[in-house]
Write a structure and sequence with these properties.
The complex is a heterodimer of chains A (222) and B (471). Chain A has 8 helices and no strands. Chain A is mostly helical and 222 residues long. The relative contact order of chain A is 0.14. Chain B is mainly alpha-helical. Chain B starts with a strand and ends in a 5-residue tail after the last helix. Classes of the chains: A mainly alpha (222), B mainly alpha (471). The interface between A and B is medium-sized, with 35 and 32 residues.
């Protein structure tokens, strides 16, 4: 009996190659839309991690797998930072404003978010808007535009750093998807990853700071 | 051999790390910050650029470039006035830091931000400068927020425009490199011009992009707001000039001057309207600063050959008025917890220099006579009335809005002092000296405008002449 072995990075990518095509793009678009609508902190943090894995798989069209892996690690680190910040100030253990999501029925802000996401989706179907990015695959151009649009929506509707900050991360992800397509510069790819970490860190700090202002009297941060 | 870039950036970063443990002792921390900035000013103003200088047995050559990964950090003659301006802004902010009790890590974070701004000014290509501005904004988050939830939202908003600008500039830089490889395809240049112009416009943030700037003034500690705004705008104006000098073809694709003029007009009017109706003193200050920024954008939009001369003159007056207003507000907030209109009633009777500094700083942002901004503002209005009279009248209307807001505040300051506030502690001697020096300097520049003209002429000559040697 042969010993079980861990597949190499290339073998692993080959086994999930279907996700580097349009199914991956579609999955990311749906996940992003769900993150805008649901705004549950646990779902958001998990979503950031899953998104970074999917985006890394898509990025292998233009960059070596090792670079894509670093990208997934960066996304994972941001998810961990935000999770720790949200937990440190006991988010989720008491009735915070945006955590009162129930199923069913959807809250009024939840319905508003859903309607706006549907409007933007219909606009994309009808008008096919794309960022003017020459030399970029059509489906990735669509995904980048969708990420930018959802980022703008998250910023416009998000009251807290957690729900709005994700918009900034999506803008960076869109640029990180596009830039390697035109320039294979490891330094710039590194800078983009570092910027994502920095923005993630600043947001994680603000999530914690925001939470301490909302703590109930006598309650302390963990 | 130590390079000039290594000395300035490394020195500022090292001192930021060393002053961080001292943050509990506000006076020592502020003094350390002041000493570091004086050293920066000494290096920027007096050290020879192209001759070796000895520093503790090590040789330093200021204009020796620091290169790596396709990027260069080098100090040339053109950057010296900008570094001096940044140094003066930081010096004024750190001197006033002890007036403020809310944020103890202001000096160490301020030194780190100063290092990033200095890096943004001396980095080539300019995209690295925009990245420096973004990193500085990420650091600024830590000093902008206080215990108030609104200040946290204000801190978060500081990330918006630098991030968008960085992404746009990054895409533009990729397109420019592609254009160099495909000289016959103008689509790349057109896309680059489009993205680069949006990047600059977003950073310059005319109305309706003014939200983050207004919330910074309205909710952050006053000295932090003045330091971050004046410093970042110094770097931004220099980067704008640098980008247009380096890539003159940009003007063929985008008429940025017209956009700036239109944006400036809307901004200055919106600022005037906001100041007239403001219900809190920091908000009045915020809209006055917005109005003044609109006037500066309008000055930039005048076009060659007046634009940079006018913008520099307006900016010197703006920086002084901003910092003076910040001193006054910091002094007020250290004695009165509330910032509403009622809290200011009768303050002039207990804190006369504080009331005077707030009023002179604010009226300076309106370009009122006898304040620092009056000279350049008057020149701008005269030019506009001769060339585009409607614009000139709109500037005067905006100015009147801000002036009315501050005259209303002055009336509140002069009202009888409520009985409950009769025992309000008076200003310390050091505070009085600082506020009086600011008020007198503002008045001096208004009465002897030739002094400011001299500074502006020198800056313009140095920067423009040095543009011939851009790498």
């Amino acid at each position: 009996m042969s010993m079980p072995y861990l597949p190499s990075l290339d073998q692993f990518l080959a086994s999930i190659s279907f996700l580097s095509g349009f199914p991956g793009v579609l999955a990311l678009m749906i996940l992003t839309a769900l993150m805008v609508v649901l705004t549950d902190w646990r779902f958001l943090v998990l979503g950031i991690g899953v998104q970074s894995v999917l985006l890394s798989i898509l990025a292998t069209r233009y960059v070596p797998p090792e670079w894509a892996l670093l990208r997934a690690v960066t996304g994972g680190l941001i998810a961990i930072m935000w999770f720790l910040s949200a937990r440190a100030i006991r988010w989720g253990r008491r009735p915070a404003r945006w955590l009162r999501w129930r199923w069913p029925p959807l809250s009024a802000p939840g319905i508003l978010r859903l309607v706006l996401v549907i409007f933007i989706f219909l606009f994309f179907l009808a008008r096919h808007p794309r960022l003017p990015l020459p030399g970029f695959d059509a489906d990735l151009s669509l995904l980048s535009t969708w990420l930018v649009a959802m980022g703008l929506l998250a910023l416009a509707l998000g009251e807290e750093t957690l729900t709005a900050g994700i918009g900034l991360i999506w803008w960076l992800e869109a640029a990180h998807l596009y830039y390697p397509a035109i320039q294979k510069d490891p330094f710039v790819a590194g800078v983009l990853g570092a910027m994502k970490l920095l923005i993630g860190l600043a947001c994680a700090y603000l999530i914690a700071a925001e939470g301490t202002t909302l703590l109930l009297p006598g309650e302390e941060a963990e | 051999m130590i390079t000039g870039a290594g000395l300035i950036l490394g020195g500022l970063t090292l001192m930021a790390l060393l002053t961080y443990p001292l943050r509990r002792w506000a006076v020592i921390c502020a003094l350390a910050g002041v000493a570091v900035v004086i050293a920066l000013l000494e290096i920027s103003l007096r050290w020879p650029l192209d001759r070796v200088t000895l520093l503790w047995g090590r040789t330093v050559l200021l204009n020796q470039p620091l290169q790596g990964l396709g990027y260069t950090l080098a100090i040339t003659e053109a950057e010296r006035p900008v570094l001096v301006m940044l140094g003066v802004i930081a010096l004024s902010a750190f001197v006033g830091a002890w007036l403020q009790t809310t944020e103890s890590s202001f000096v160490p974070s301020g030194l780190a931000i100063l290092a990033l701004w200095a890096g943004a000014v001396i980095a080539r290509p300019p995209i690295a400068g925009i990245a420096g501005l973004l990193i500085a904004s990420c650091l600024a988050v830590f000093i902008v927020h206080t215990q108030h939830p609104a200040s946290i939202r204000a801190a978060f908003r500081q990330l918006w425009w630098p991030l968008i600008a960085f992404l746009m500039a990054l895409i533009a830089s990729g397109q420019i490199q592609e254009a160099e490889l495909h000289p016959d395809d103008f689509a790349y240049l057109q896309t680059a011009a489009w993205f680069l112009s949006i990047s600059l416009l977003v950073l310059l943030a005319p109305t309706p992009l003014h939200g983050p700037a207004v919330s910074l003034f309205a909710h952050a500690p006053p000295l932090v707001a003045a330091f971050l705004t004046a410093g970042a705008q110094t770097v931004l104006l220099y980067l704008t000039w640098l980008i247009f000098s380096r890539w003159p073809w940009l003007a063929e694709y985008i008429e940025l001057n017209r956009l700036l003029a239109a944006g400036g007009l809307v901004t200055l009017l919106w600022g005037g309207l906001g100041a007239m109706t403001a219900g809190r003193i920091p908000r009045l200050w915020a809209y006055a600063a917005l109005h003044d920024w609109g006037v500066l954008l309008l000055g930039l939009g005048l076009g060659v050959p007046l634009e940079w001369q006018m913008a520099t003159a307006l900016f010197v007056g703006r920086a002084l008025s901003l910092l003076l207003g910040a001193y006054g507000l910091a002094s007020l907030q250290s004695r009165v917890a509330q910032a509403g209109w009622d809290a200011a009633q009768g303050i002039a009777r207990r804190l006369p220099w504080t009331a005077l500094a707030i009023t002179v700083g604010g009226l300076g942002l309106a370009g009122f006579p006898l304040t620092a901004s009056f000279g350049p503002r008057w020149t701008l209005i005269q030019i506009l009335l001769r060339t585009r009279s409607t614009w000139g009248f709109l500037v005067i209307i905006g100015q009147l809005g801000v002036a009315l807001g501050y005259l209303r505040l002055l009336q509140t300051f002069m009202a009888p002092l409520p009985r409950a506030r009769r025992l309000l502690p008076r200003e310390h001697l050091a505070t009085v000296v600082l506020l009086a020096a600011g008020v007198l300097l503002s008045g001096f520049l208004a009465l002897v405008p030739q002094t400011m003209d001299g500074i502006v002429q020198t800056v313009i000559e140095i920067v423009i002449q040095s543009s011939n040697y851009l790498p």
